[in-house]
UniProtKB/TrEMBL annotation:
<dbReference type="InterPro" id="IPR015943">
    <property type="entry name" value="WD40/YVTN_repeat-like_dom_sf"/>
</dbReference>
<protein>
    <submittedName>
        <fullName>F-box/WD repeat-containing protein 12</fullName>
    </submittedName>
</protein>
<dbReference type="InterPro" id="IPR036322">
    <property type="entry name" value="WD40_repeat_dom_sf"/>
</dbReference>
Amino acid sequence: MDEQEKSIICSVSPKKELCAWDVQEGTMIWSSPVQKFQISNLVTLPQMHLVITVDMSKTIKVWNCQDRDPLAALPMPDTCYCMEAHLTKDGPFLMVSEPRF
């Protein structure tokens, strides 16, 4: 990161919250409201200041870690085992893996 940017860590708390921490300051700078379901996975798009989570209810949520509520939510038909987020020339792209038996 350049001198203008902050290093931020995103984590999930045992209290079912998504949290953002300022690494240099060692302080929490944002937390989501307590979620109804535990967050099971998260990925980030740091260039866009976004975090994407999936919870135990199989709902994907997009957060900007500034607003209280998610920017978007999408219920999935099955459990998401793996997510990868990429930024392409056409915009952000999220890949989600579901089990196939």
